[in-house]
Design goal:
87 residues; 4 helices; 2 domains; mainly alpha
Length: 87
């Protein structure tokens, strides 16, 4: 039995080329990057980044939240204790 596994996948060519250029800056080939990714999954026992929907998109589309941010940046809102910060 082989001590290695063969992984075959389809990736859009443009994405592959862009990623390949980035990986080259680190001295990595795409196959090596996949191996690093799998090693990190094994090490952490999980995917090494959040796969949930990007939660930052929702608050930034909320006009009330944006108005609060504007007041915060203008110095109109100050928090002195962590318990006062809205969740």
């Amino acid at each position: 039995m082989s001590k290695t596994a063969y992984l075959r996948t389809h990736i859009p060519a443009a994405r592959f080329k862009r990623a390949e250029k980035i990986l080259a800056r680190f001295g990595l080939k795409p196959g090596e990057a996949v191996n690093v990714f799998f090693a990190k999954i094994e090490e952490e026992g999980n995917v090494p980044f959040d796969l949930r929907a990007d939660e930052t998109k929702e608050p930034l589309s909320d006009t009330g939240f944006l108005a609060h941010l504007a007041r915060l940046h203008a110095g109109e809102v100050r928090y002195t204790e962590a318990k006062d910060v809205p969740a």
